[in-house]
Amino acid sequence: MEDKPAHRRLLNGVYVIGAKHSGRVNAMTAAWVTRVAFEPPLIAVAIGPERYTHDMIAQSGYFTINILKKGQEKIGAHFGLQSGRDTDKMKGIKYREAKSGAPILEDAPAWIECKVIERVSAGDHTIFIGEVVNECVREDFEPLPYRSEDYYG
Q1: Which of 4, 39, 44, 81 is most buried as measured by Cβ atoms within 10 A of its Cβ?
Q2: What is the CATH number of the domain that holds 94?
Q3: Could you list the residue range(s) of the whole structural domain that residue 124 is in?
Q4: Cα separation, 67 vs 76, whole angstroms
């Protein structure tokens, strides 16, 4: 049996979280995304404060969640293995901007745009709680499951 704690076995998907602030668009890979309420529809994302996207969400007050499907592992790796502070991760990526300016990936089978309604400091992460302001499912798909070894070795 693997020497991995039970909490590391909780099932998560792979998402690309995007934001725009001061004319700059950025996105990052995240796995800690969950629904919080049905009415109004609320979603929480947990992001480390050292992440460039964290600052962009905090300053803009909006974010997008691009849901990845099985077979899109390379997209998840692209947005997760480099910092937007050091490189333009959106260069060469086909996307359009949501009303907030946050990116919607053309290849994402589903996406959600959220307005931040609350921020909670939780250990080494910030939980941004967002109210869904727009969303779309483009196709029927099987979500890409998150496995830390795919992104951290």
Answers
A1: 44
A2: 2.30.110.10
A3: 13-142
A4: 10
